[in-house]
Amino acid sequence: MTLRIAVPNKGALSVAASEILREAGYRQRSDNKELALIDAENGVEFFYLRPRDIALYVGEGTLDVGITGRDLLLDSGATATEVMQLGFGRSRFHFAGPAGEFTTLEQLSGKRIATSYVGVVEAFLAARGIDASVTRLDGAVETSIKLGVADVIADVVETGSTLRAAGLATFGEVILDSEAVMIARGDSDIEGFEIFRRRVEGVLVARSFVMMDYDIEQTSLERAAGLAPGLEGPTISPLGKEGWVAVRVMVPRAGSQRLMDDLYEVGARAILLTDIHACRL
Ligand SMILES: Nc1ncnc2c1ncn2[C@@H]1O[C@H](COP(=O)(O)OP(=O)(O)OP(=O)(O)O)[C@@H](O)[C@H]1O
Ligand SMILES: O=P(O)(O)OC[C@H]1O[C@H](OP(=O)(O)OP(=O)(O)O)[C@H](O)[C@@H]1O
Ligand SMILES: [Mg+2]
């Protein structure tokens, strides 16, 4: 039984997706013309596909698991479910128009909207009871306004530089916050999936946590443990110094320098930070 996994073949998600899989111990293609790759040792096969199509393959059950964008999953209407946020490929989905012309979503009424995400836009308009026409374009939607094909666009915004260059500005609230996600079929308990899920989760944890070691006097331990409680609780070992203990605890990478300052303040010494390379929670 081989777990069949869909991976973005190009575009904004492809490099980071393969990187996370490689870190999780899987083989990845070395040539981006390869369309599929069997990793027999790990019992998985990877299929390199357009991220927009990945939700459909997984939803239909042709493939077991996939990596794609949350916005693309929702846009496709596929029945696959999001099982894990992967922390890369972040973007926001926005309406945008000529700078200064639009301020509220009510102004969308009766307008022509160009987008590559017709599913997301139509669902949003329907939920708000806004009547507007939606045109599907494959890309470069920013140009459609200048060419007179649309009044407004709805598109992915990452840094905002593409919009600025086109003289456009977002208006209204964010329609959708997106990032790369792992998707699977909601109903099934696919063999091998749980191992795959845990391996990828291990990479994310290893990226976002570090290991902290320190020595402290027994009498100050409670205060220190309050600052850094760890996942289950700190590991406390005897130290070759009367009244002192050695403590080991996993802490979030973000804020770890500040935490070292705070631990020092309450009496911790020889505080060490080390990277975690892999992990199973
Ligand atoms: N700067 C960005 N441009 C486009 N998509 C981005 C960006 N940052 C993150 N994403 C996310 O990547 C996914 C789109 O990937 P996809 O490969 O379809 O688009 P792309 O990089 O624009 O590729 P292409 O336009 O060449 O088909 C979406 O989930 C989107 O939210
Ligand atoms: O906010 P930014 O950082 O500028 O990124 C957002 C832009 O990037 C994407 O376009 P892409 O380069 O994929 O071209 P496309 O329109 O042909 O898909 C997206 O469609 C926006 O145009
Ligand atoms: Mg694009």
Tell me the layout of helices and strands.
Elements lengths: L2 E6 L5 H10 L12 E4 L4 E6 L1 H10 L4 E5 H7 L3 E6 L5 E8 L13 E4 L2 H11 L4 E4 L6 H4 L5 E6 L3 H5 L2 E11 L1 E6 L7 H16 E9 L3 H7 L7 E4 L5 E9 L3 H10 L3 E7 L6
Parallel strand pairs: 1-3, 1-4, 7-8, 7-9
Antiparallel strand pairs: 2-3, 4-11, 5-11, 6-9, 6-10, 12-14, 12-15, 13-14
Helix pairs in contact: 3-4
The site of adenosine-5'-triphosphate has 15 residues, from helix 2 and helix 3.
Could you explain the architecture of this structure?
With 281 residues, the chain is an alpha/beta fold. It has three domains: 3-89 and 179-191, 3-Layer(aba) Sandwich (D-Maltodextrin-Binding Protein, domain 2), CATH 3.40.190.10; 91-177, Periplasmic binding protein-like II (D-Maltodextrin-Binding Protein, domain 2, 3-Layer(aba) Sandwich), CATH 3.40.190.10; 209-275, Alpha-Beta Plaits, CATH 3.30.70. The chain is 28% helix and 34% strand. The protein contains nine helices and 15 strands. A six-stranded mixed beta sheet has the order 2-3-1-4-11-5, sandwiched between helices. It has a five-stranded mixed beta sheet with strand order 8-7-9-6-10. It has a four-stranded antiparallel beta sheet with strand order 13-14-12-15. Strand 2 (36-39) and strand 3 (44-49) form a beta hairpin. The relative contact order is 0.15. The chain binds adenosine-5'-triphosphate (ATP), 1-O-pyrophosphono-5-O-phosphono-alpha-D-ribofuranose and magnesium ion.
The main sheet comes to: 6 strands, mixed
**How would you sum up the global shape?**
globular
What is the string of SSEs from the N terminus onward?
EHEEHEHEEEHEHEHEEHEHEEHE
Show unreliable segments: none
CATH architectural type of the largest domain = 3-Layer(aba) Sandwich
Subcellular location: Cytoplasm
Family: Belongs to the ATP phosphoribosyltransferase family. Long subfamily.
Organism: Nocardioides piscis
Protein name: ATP phosphoribosyltransferase
